[in-house]
Amino acid sequence: MARKPRLAAGRARALGVPTRGTTNPNRLRRVDRWMTGTLSSFLAGAADPLVVDLGYGATPITTVEMAARLRAVRPDVRVLGLEIDQERVDAGKAVADPPFLDFRRGGFELAGARPVLLRAFNVLRQYTEEQAFEAWDTMLSRMAPGGLVVEGTCDEIGRRCTWVTLSAEGPLRFTLACKPSAIETPGDIAERLPKALIHKNVPGERVHALLAELDACWATAAPFAPFGPRARWVETARLLTERGWPVLDDRRRWRLGEITLEWAAVAP
Fold first, then answer.
1. How many angstroms separate the first and last alpha carbons of the chain?
2. Helix or strand (DSSP H, E) at 26
3. What are phi and psi of 220, to 5 degrees?
4. What secondary structure letter does DSSP report for 21?
5. Phi-psi region for residue 157, left (φ > 0), alpha (ψ -120 to 50) or beta?
6. Fewer Cβ within 10 Å of end Cβ, the chain: N or C?
7. How far are the Cα atoms of 23, 84, 86, 102, 151 from residue 10, in angstroms, in the given order?
């Protein structure tokens, strides 16, 4: 039975349990690229550009990479990496550059920080659905007014990813991202659905219908295969839009292997 989130012992009183800690350089490049593109205006307009990376793993490399990428949008961004495991925090401290990049012990309570943006990747897979929704509520309650949470999952090398963007009002949008040459069909991404959706990939649920429609569009787009997997993905996204799905992005994002939809399209 999965353990319920708890207050870990120690001064930080960090809420949650440690993840496996696996990480790799460049693993989260797709979500970072999406944030620096789709959320560029949001970040540029933030009164206090504090961003939290929750549960960065055994090494701080993906936090360091995110900080560097966000600086292209907001040069004065401050990034705070949070981990429950003190050894992981110590590894982060070794590369810290406060106040622009720092590391602290903390969990879903965000260690007292009130960020405008929070990235939580590969953190909730070990929890039950109920616990994952509770974690959403806890994180959102700690955000700065108008803040956004980006919570998702990816494979070990970052070629298959999904994430949900949330605000205080709840989930806003759902994004799939992949390297099109690394999939047989879009349905391959199902194994990396976020906790809120992964058990809903069954007939009768919206996310199952979405993935089935994506596979059908991918099959219809087969004539584009000679132009490369990326061209086939773009045509797949165009067909999905044409069939009435609430796609929020356009060809510029599709060429990067992304598709973003309104959350209502997949909500359980």
1. 23
2. none
3. -65, -30
4. -
5. alpha
6. N
7. 25, 10, 10, 20, 26
pLDDT in tens, 113-166: 999 999 999 999 889 999 999 999 999 999 999 999 999 999 999 999 999 999
- Asked if residue 87 has pLDDT above 70, the reply is yes
pLDDT digits (tens, 9 = 90+) for 177-235: 999 999 999 999 999 999 999 999 999 999 999 999 999 999 999 999 999 999 999 99
Q: How far apart are CA 51 and CA 37, in angstroms?
A: 16
| Interval 61-72 mean pLDDT | 98
CA within 13 Å, CB half, 139: 35
Whether pLDDT at 62 is above 70? yes
- Six-digit token string for 121: 């990747």
DSSP E strand stretches across 55-145 = 78-83, 101-105, 117-121
> Whole-angstrom Cα distance, residue 224 to residue 196?
33
